[in-house]
Every structure is written in C-alpha cells, then in structure tokens.
Amino acid sequence: MTKIKNGPIQRWGNKVNWKRRVKAVCKPCWEIKYCPYGPLVERFPIKEISDEKSCRIFGHDCPVFFVAEPLTETKELRNISRVIPRVTQFRVLKRDNQICRDCGDAVRDQDVEFDHIIPWSKGGSSDEHNVKLLCKTCNRKKGKKFEDQHLVESIASHLVEPVPFLILYTITEFVKLSHKIYKEEHREHNVEDITKWFGRRKLHEQDKVAAELVSDIQQFFDSPKPTEIAKKLFNALKYRWGYPSREFHTLKEAAKIHDVSLAELFSIEISFFERLGWPIALTESNRKKWLKL
Fold it and tell me: What per-residue confidence (pLDDT) applies to 125?
C-alpha cells in the first residue's frame, strides 16, 4: 500500500506542529481526577502499560486516549512554553514569601528555584497558579511520578470523608504515649492507658478506637514492607514513627537521616493514613503544620 505523504491528516499535523506537541494525557483525567469513561471501558482487556495506546494513568484502553487523545490538545495547550516568565517568578517569590513549598524552610537568594506543579510534559502551564517556589535541594530530589503523587487511586478517595487535621496531633500523642509505656514499663499500651490519658474514669468508645489505631500503626511497621513503597522511604517512615527505636521523630529528621526527599516522604505519610482509613483534611496551612510535626 502506497503511503500518502501529504494527506489531510499529515497536513493537519503540519499545521499544528505535531512534532513539538505536548504529550499530555487528555484534559478530563487531570481536571476532575477520575476517569469519566471508567464504566464504559473497565471491562476492556488491559494491555501492558508500555502499550502507547493504553491510558498512562488508569491502564485501560481508554477510547479518548486510543482514538481522540491527539485531538483533545487545544491550540493553547500546544503553545505552552516551558519557560517560566520573569514576571511570574517575581509574583511567585512574593506569594510564597521565599519559603520552599516542599520543606518549609526559608530559601537563600542563590538557592531559589521555580517548578511546575503540574509538569509541563503533562500539559501544565507556566502561569502563576501552576508554579511553586522550591529550594535547590528539594527541586533536585522532587518525585518524578506525578500521577502517583497527585491523582486519586480509586473511587474510595471520593467517598471517604477526611478527618479534621487536629486529629493528627492526637494520633502522634497516642503513639508517643505507647512508646513511653514500652520504655518505662516494658509492655504494650492498652485501652485503659488511653482512658487515663484523656483524664477520664470510665472507658469511652473512642478510647477503644484510639487504642486500635495505635496497634494498627505498630502492626503496619512490624509487617513486611508494602511492595509499592520504596525501601528507603518505608525505612524513613518507620524511623519517623519510632519503630523499633520507640522514639518519635519529625519528618525532616527522618528525611535527612535516610537521605530521601521530604516531599516524597510527606506524600507516603499521607497515603499511610489513607491506608489506615484515616484520610487527613489537607489545606496549604495544614500542610505547613504537618511538615513541622
């Protein structure tokens, strides 16, 4: 069969400068964070992830990705520049108060760097809302698996209501109490210890929940490493929560000791609470407080 060198598709490709197009997933997956075609394609045969015709986010043969993905890229998206304009850098510098968005530390002038929140390669713009300030160290260590870090993994993420952020403080105090009891009395905690911690005489139902949660945390770290978590990150998280040393540490201490990215460790800890069934409500303000715990 003779190849048509200048057919309508080829002419259209030349017109939109197809060779330099941004190879991003279709817009709906990024904006609404779930696959709008899921019920229609969930029974499709799933091919190897290396198959370029399968959705890179959800793995199935998505009709948009398979047929129409090239057509979902608007002229605006194709013309996105990777360069962050100087005026945008100044605005982000002022907005973030020269504080690294990942580690929360003040950044020296010579170490200030700027990064796309949604990567340019995924269709992220260079506008102020999609740019964050990072220190040089965090920018070098940032995770490259954007999908794993920022997209929800299942529909459960849409259905489970996050718990108030203040609960995080209480959970850390429970774990510290458990460590103290172990070191001073050479035993594991029990529900009566939680009741006493609350200053109550009678046991409440929430005391049982708290005691079970601390036991679940301990069991998680006593069990084999989950396959989806890198060994260094798992060990850093384990060190952070005081197992087996029975000494609680901050996220920054754990990241530094185990030479892992603070941003990656933070992301793993968020997933850790979701795994336990306790997704924490997260705002930018809460994020900064969490990083200091």
Answer: 78
